[in-house]
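Lab notebook, bench 4. The sequencing result for the construct came back, and we need a structural model before the next group meeting so we can plan mutations. Quick request posted to the team channel:

Model the 3D structure of this chain.
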Amino acid sequence: MTGSVVLYGRPGCCLCEDALMVLERVQARRPFRLEQRDIERDDALLAAYLERIPLITIDGIVAFELFVDEAELEQRLAAAGPAEAPVE
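Done. Here's the predicted structure in token form:
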């Protein structure tokens, strides 16, 4: 079962906004838990990911950097297991 998808980004990043739109479109068709992490709130994340954002992980494994391929995202989620209802 897919545990979570995490989007690492920062405010004002247009690539991060584009990635979020893709994630939300896919989430509407195939529910999953989506977390967003602002790398500017953590010095270690900022140092590790500044040149790689947006960075998307699925169940803790890096799936995409810089852009999200919508079809590939759906395939990876399907391979990860049954869809999970979003956590409220």
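The two ends are 17 Å apart (CA to CA).
Will bring this to the meeting.
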